[in-house]
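Lab notebook, bench 4. Still working through the backlog of constructs that have no structural model yet. Next entry is a single chain of 378 residues. Request: give me the structure tokens for it.
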Amino acid sequence: MKRHRSIQKICTYIFAILVMSLNDSKAQEIISIDPPAGWYEFDATNLFKKAAEGYKMRDFFKENVDNIQKPVVQLVGYKPDTKKGQYGASIKLALTTNPFPDFESFRTNMIQSQQFMTSLIDDFSVLTPIKDTLIADRQALIARYRGTISTIENEKRPFISTLIIIPTSTEAYQIALSQSALDDYGEVFNQAIKSITFKPSETAEELLIKQREQESADKEYSQLGEVVGEFDFRVKTDDLENYEDGYIPWADIKDPEAYMPKLENKDEVIVNYPQINVIIDYPVSNEYVFILKSTKGFTRSQLLHEICKQYQLMYKEEEDSATIKTIPPDKRTTIYNRNETNGKYGIWGHDIEDLALSKITVYKNGNGDIIVIPYIES
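Model written out:
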């Protein structure tokens, strides 16, 4: 995507995605869970630092919070709309490093860590000692604790927490299901635990595409000169269910003519210069630049037609010049997106059918040259 199409999909069953290095060649997985009904997602990042700021913690914890936080990636958290007790219920997932060579060594370390918790938390006690279990058919450890934490305002908050650790070869997932000592979320937590699953993560190629998408979305164009205009390409529609304002905010690159009859203000001259340079930089490794000339300037429909025409020519030239050809969609087995080809422009990530033009930005540089950047949705 250069800019995402404005259709948002909420997938609440996806609990977290493991962010990993593109250079990591081993198979990776992501973990998912069904959050309890009525629970919402909250920001679970930097929980240790937030705890040190909001609660009375032992000096060791406060002095070493950065080192404690460093190997932990807080991925996501869920909590209910209502809070019954003083200490609200929550489900939190974190990812930590696993430096231990085998499961036995990992277990031994967890037992030692459990003993260390008595020096950090008031009234700490073990309700269920660490024991082996299976979570989503994986070897895991589970334990249950209780204790009391005090806020900066001296409010004591007793809690009960179930901790699940699922080690992999180099990482370990930590799932904490916590509640006030006054509440009982036992059945809710049991259902959440039963819903935990693992599935293969994205391939290295998919991760690379995501990285490129982000780089493209973040790209700066201020070096091109002064912005002298921005113009949308909206298409009138009767589909009010998907487009409440009655306009599709783009026109497809593959078949722009289908959108021309209902293109908003299609005959308006929006770029009133005799010559423009158009730069196509998505989704390509090497820019495609073309020049348009007109003594009367350029209407919205002319620019839609010409930009789409050049996109089609670029895709054809890419395929003709590439030795690594595009894999047909029905032949793709490891990745849904278009594979990267090695032609003149190095097209990656998207078939032309994926692309749509939503707007253009017009720049004027110090030499008076006019440069047009299309904004492409995918």
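Notes after review: The longest strand covers residues 122-135. The chain has seven helices and 20 strands. Flag for follow-up if needed.
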